[in-house]
């Protein structure tokens, strides 16, 4: 049980960092923001679920689906919200800074 929990915590942390970048790249592939939103959220969730399942399989976790199910559902929700937020933002030039400043407040107008 502890081994499964540690595997889940480690994969969740690493995946959250990496999958955020993947989501942004997938979103940028489409010129249609609605399509980009669906592709980014769905693709990122699928990739995260496959990597997490693989990590648990490698760690020897029993009942992998039950172990990763809650985090996959939560991840799908979070990635969908983030992709929806990207859909609402004006386009940025490649390499441009994030619209959120270091203080955590938005640089865009009211």
Secondary-structure map with pairings?
Elements lengths: L1 H28 L3 H27 L4 H25 L22
Helix pairs in contact: 1-2, 1-3, 2-3
Mean residue pLDDT:
82
Mind summarizing the main beta sheet?
none
Q: What's the N-to-C terminus distance? A: 48 Å
Structure annotation, total helices: 3
Percent helix: over 70%
| Fraction of residues in β-strands | under 5%
SSE run: HHH
Strand tally is 0
Helix/strand-derived category reads mainly alpha
**Total count of domains:** 1
The Rg value, from CA coordinates, equals 16 Å
Morphology call: elongated
Poorly predicted parts: none
Question: What would your notes on this structure say?
Answer:
The chain has one domain. The protein is elongated, with a radius of gyration of 16 Å. The chain is mainly alpha-helical and 110 residues long. Helices cover 73% and strands 0% of the residues. The longest helix has 28 residues, at 2-29. It has helices spanning 2-29, 33-59, 64-88. The chain is built from 3 helices and no strands.
At a glance:
By secondary structure, this protein is mainly alpha-helical. The protein is 73% helix and 0% strand. The chain has one domain.
Which structural traits does this protein have?
single chain; mainly alpha; elongated; 73% helix; 110 residues
């Amino acid at each position: 049980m502890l081994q499964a929990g540690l595997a889940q915590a480690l994969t969740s942390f690493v995946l959250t960092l990496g999958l955020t970048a993947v989501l942004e790249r997938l979103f940028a592939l489409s010129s249609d923001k609605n399509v980009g939103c669906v592709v980014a959220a769905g693709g990122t969730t699928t990739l995260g679920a496959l990597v997490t399942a693989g990590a648990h399989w490698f760690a020897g976790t029993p009942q992998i689906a039950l172990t990763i199910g809650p985090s996959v559902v939560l991840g799908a929700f979070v990635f969908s919200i983030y992709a929806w937020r990207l859909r609402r933002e004006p386009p940025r030039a490649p390499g441009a800074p994030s619209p959120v400043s270091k203080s955590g407040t938005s640089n865009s107008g009211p």
